[in-house]
Specification:
CATH superfamily of the largest domain: Glycogen Phosphorylase B
Shape: globular
Radius of gyration: 20 Å
CATH class of the largest domain: Alpha Beta
Distance between the termini: 9 Å
Oligomer: single chain
Order of helices and strands: EHEHEHHEHEHHEHEHEHEEHEHEHEHHH
Length: 381
């Protein structure tokens, strides 16, 4: 008899993991499964706001400096009790998953390990297998930390299957963070990004009217704030005044991930939150964003080139941005070099060079051929 009760443990850093897991959750519920869900931090808040009865787990996070740069020292200090915190998480997951027939983990080491301890079939969804640390000043320390960061991969490797929620090679966004040992490759599959699908052939004029934009006006620039709360707000405070200036020439729309603007924009159409950002991706000419894998996957699935401003010293985001830039679908703009001049230069370069749109279009075509939700459901049914 197929499993009917599933426990789903979701990484709570930022919105990306929770957003894609919510899509999976809704489909599993539609198919008659009973689901328990756990998360923490931004992910827990996102799920609760979406009406999910999500259970709390002890949070983990990394350290960030006031300017939004990842700090090795603060990360070590903040996680000095990580072994205890992990055991607390594991204890919660053991309790939450005890009555489940199957365990599904979205990048949660504790969930994967709990599933195996309980003897349940366990599947892990990932877009990052190994952790890259960008901090050349402390090279020897980084080598030690990166070696330690392979430990989660060993636990994820205990899963019955590892499902990579990313485009298959050579289009993989997170390829720099997916160095998977050969012994795990047989159980690893690239299923494609788990993102919302926009209804077929949306009316551009109707969508533009919905957001107060002119379908026959100037190019539409979409700033989509995403990622962990503090780093998201740092960039928004810096970029909104710049966007307000360039909105004299372009149509600019911004979604802030639920945050307050902190700046009275006169020309930018600012939304604290929208329920379906894929509509705005669809009508945009280019997207400005951090370099989280889920946000990049949404932009590229819509065939839109991107200007990426990765979180400084964030190894995963820097790797993602490098992959997309190498594919020709986007430009990297460093946060400490962000200004009206550098942003306008990047915008003009993308809008005037058709190759950026053509490269992004290749991702859109690939996305249309993939069906990650069906692949997940077929494996656990």
């Amino acid at each position: 008899m197929p499993p009917r009760r599933i426990h789903l443990g979701i990484c709570g850093i930022g919105y990306g993991h929770a957003a894609r897991s919510l899509i999976i959750l809704r489909e599993l519920e539609r198919r008659g499964f009973t689901i328990t869900v756990s998360s923490y931090g931004d992910g827990l808040r996102y799920l609760i706001s979406a009406g999910v009865n999500a259970l709390p787990s002890p949070p983990v996070s990394y350290g960030v400096l006031p300017e939004g740069k990842v700090s090795i020292k603060m990360t070590i200090f903040r996680n000095i009790t990580l072994p205890i915190r992990f055991l607390e998480q594991l204890s919660c997951e053991l309790g939450y998953a005890e009555d489940a027939d199957l365990v599904l983990s979205d990048s949660r080491v504790s969930t994967t390990l709990a599933g195996k301890i309980l003897g349940k079939p366990t599947f892990t969804i990932l877009n990052q297998f190994n952790i890259r640390i960008e901090y050349p000043r402390y090279r020897r320390l980084i080598e030690i930390l990166e070696a330690a960061c392979y430990a989660p991969g060993e636990i994820w490797g205990l899963s019955n299957e590892i499902l990579i929620a990313d485009y298959p090679p050579p289009y993989t966004i997170s390829k720099w963070n997916l160095v998977i040992p050969d012994r795990f490759l047989e159980k690893t599959s690239f299923i494609g990004p788990v993102i919302e699908r926009l209804e077929k052939n949306p009316r551009r004029d109707e969508l533009c009217e919905m957001y107060g934009l002119d379908p026959r006006g100037g190019p539409i620039i979409f700033y989509h704030a995403s990622g962990p709360a503090y780093e998201r707000r740092i960039l928004t405070r810096q970029i909104l005044p710049i966007l307000d200036e360039i909105a004299r020439e372009y149509q600019v729309i911004a979604t802030l991930g639920g945050d307050e603007p902190g700046y009275a924009a006169e020309r930018v159409r600012v939304y604290r939150w929208v329920d379906d950002p894929m509509r705005i991706f669809a009508i945009s000419d280019l997207v400005i964003c951090r370099a989280g894998q889920t946000t990049l996957a949404k932009a590229l699935a819509s065939g839109k080139p991107v200007i990426m401003i990765p979180i400084p010293a964030h190894g995963e985001q820097l790797g993602n941005a490098l992959s997309v830039a190498e594919s020709g679908a986007g430009i990297i703009l460093e946060q400490d070099k962000l200004s009206r001049e550098t942003l306008e230069s990047a915008i003009r370069r993308i809008l005037l060079d058709e190759s950026f749109r053509e490269s992004a279009e290749e991702y859109r075509k690939l996305h249309m051929r993939l069906n990650p939700i069906e692949q997940i459901c077929s494996r656990i049914s």
